Amino acid sequence: MLFKEKKGWEIPEQRITExxxxxxxxxxxxxIGGTTGLFAATAMVPAALASQNTDQKYQATRNERxxxxxxxxxxxxxxxxxxxxEFGSHKSIYKAAQALKTSPWSITIDGLVDNPKKLDxxxxxxxxxxxxxxxxxxxxxxWSMIVPWIGFPLASLISLVKPLSNxxxxxxxxxxxxxxxxxxxxxxxxxxxxxxxxxxxxxNELAFMATGVYGKxxxxxxxxxxxxxxPWKYGFKSIKSVVRITFTDKRPVSFWEKLQPKEYGFWANVxxxxxxxxxxxxxxxxxxGQTIPTQLFxxxxxxxxxxYEDKKSENLFR
Length: 318
Description:
It is a single chain. By secondary structure, the chain is an alpha+beta fold. It has 9 helices and 12 strands. The chain has helices at 19-31, 34-44, 47-50, 75-80, 121-127, 154-161, 199-202, 255-259, 301-304, and strands at 106-111, 117-120, 131-138, 143-153, 169-174, 194-198, 208-213, 216-217, 227-229, 242-248, 283-286, 291-293. The strands form 2 sheets. Strands 3, 4, 7, 8, 9, 11 and 12 form a 7-stranded mixed β-sheet that branches. β3 (131-138) and β4 (143-153) form a beta hairpin. The longest helix has 13 residues, at 19-31.
């Protein structure tokens, strides 16, 4: 009899969503009632979340161009069920992630550009107009949520550096802080975490640099102080805590593709008809426990389908 030994990057099917965890937690919250319940609920909120006070620069007008048909995901659920492998390979990393130092912060933009820059994050944020966009988020693990991100289009950063004519792709890189990030000790991962897009994808109107969520500063566990959000792709493409953006003429091989290219490819566009090798992608489970059909391009085909019309020979969904 043959036994398969799972690699460090493989996710057991039974851990994809941990549905019972969510149902039990939500049932507990529903049982809290009256004034006593309010005090109890307040006590249950972790300090890591309670400290995320609202800030005027994260009060943004919602862009109604990006419609959504379901209710927003509960803020507690969305901010405490997170992947961030630098802090561990489980979903409850929000406490550990508070060790991340997000100030001072800078972003280096380099490579095939006419005007490379190293930008102070606070200074940059004070100069850019921000907006709120409600986006669907679909994880390759088959769970999903709907989140009100605050930030600005990635295209606005691209315009600051003037890419050269031979630039075809961008590579984004996550910070490596060995003192704060215990997951970096897992030497079998190809650190630093990197992710790549074509320049056309990066310039698409949906590609968004998030600086806040739910009217507040972006929590550290969700990729503070700035992360990418590309809602038509599986969630691992939306890289967190970005410190570098490099323009290149070569298609990058990013973090998950290096680990397992048969499961996590460069394109990673959401498609319910193309299964992950170890589970179906036809349906998804919301963080509230509902099971719903998955949509092509996560429901954003009208915005992005044209990007792939000349790429029929590519495996666009893995």
